[in-house]
């Protein structure tokens, strides 16, 4: 079936409460991400689901103060973009292959499809919010997955071994934005 990515703005949280909770649980279990409830109220979710699995991945987009970012990324911004006070951050998760339900090649296609679609969604989101960058936090595993297939272009990265929290941090360039 075609990949369905559902974009859920803060005003629609109530309607999609179940999907949001499923996704947050996946983030917590597999990536030890947990986000304070009050922050979640302003989050935009991108949720991937299908009839067979239910929710199997997505992204959580949140506007944050530069001061709340990982130290390495924060120092980079303060140096390169001193006027920037707030940025949009994203956390990503894709959990379909934990099922081990299908062959390597098909699994890979579904997976690449997910990331390509997600990038499209991020670009549209960037247009809408007038932003050129998305500040992503990924678990080591997610990072290696996106890196191996050279799916996304990061302008700046802090590897899990260098970061203070053990996560990968990267600044993703959003294209398609008219200057």
Concise summary:
This protein has 179 residues and is an alpha+beta fold. It is built from 5 helices and 7 strands, in the order βααββαβαβαββ.
- Spans of at least 5 consecutive residues whose pLDDT stays below 50 are none
- Given the structure, what is the number of helices? 5
Strands of the biggest beta sheet: in what spatial order? 1-2-3-4-5-7-6
The outline comes out as globular
- Note the quaternary state here: single chain
Distance between the termini: 36 Å
Order of helices and strands: EHHEEHEHEHEE
Return the average pLDDT rounded to an integer: 87
Helix content: 25-40%
Give the total of beta strands: 7
What's the gyration radius in Å? 16 Å
Please identify the structural class as seen in this structure.
Answer: alpha+beta
In percent, how much strand structure appears in the residues? 25-35%
Largest sheet: 7 strands, mixed
How are the secondary structure elements laid out?
Layout: E1 5-8, H1 17-31, H2 37-40, E2 44-50, E3 54-65, H3 71-80, E4 86-94, H4 104-129, E5 133-138, H5 140-148, E6 154-158, E7 168-173
Parallel strand pairs: 4-5
Antiparallel strand pairs: 1-2, 2-3, 3-4, 5-7, 6-7
Q: Could you characterize what this model shows?
A:
This protein is α+β, with helices and mostly antiparallel strands and 179 residues long. Helices cover 36% and strands 27% of the residues. It contains five helices and seven strands. It has helices at 17-31, 37-40, 71-80, 104-129, 140-148, and strands at 5-8, 44-50, 54-65, 86-94, 133-138, 154-158, 168-173. It has a seven-stranded mixed sheet with strand order 1-2-3-4-5-7-6, with helices on both faces. Helix 4 links the parallel strand 4 and strand 5.
């Amino acid at each position: 079936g075609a990949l369905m990515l559902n974009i859920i703005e803060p005003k629609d949280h109530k309607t999609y409460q179940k999907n949001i909770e499923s996704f947050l649980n996946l983030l917590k279990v597999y990536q030890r991400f947990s986000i304070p409830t009050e922050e979640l109220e302003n989050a935009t979710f991108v949720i991937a689901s299908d009839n067979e699995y239910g929710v199997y991945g997505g992204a959580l987009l949140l506007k944050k103060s530069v001061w709340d970012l990982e130290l390495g990324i924060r120092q980079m911004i303060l140096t390169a973009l001193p006027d920037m006070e707030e940025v949009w951050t994203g956390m990503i998760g894709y959990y379909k292959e934990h099922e081990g339900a299908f062959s390597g090649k098909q699994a890979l296609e579904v997976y690449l499809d997910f990331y390509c679609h997600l990038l499209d969604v991020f670009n549209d989101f960037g247009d809408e919010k007038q932003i050129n960058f998305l500040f992503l936090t990924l678990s080591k595993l997610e990072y290696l997955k996106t890196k191996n297939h050279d799916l996304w272009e990061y302008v700046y990265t802090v590897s899990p071994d260098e970061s203070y929290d053990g996560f990968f941090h990267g600044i993703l360039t959003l294209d398609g934005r008219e200057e």
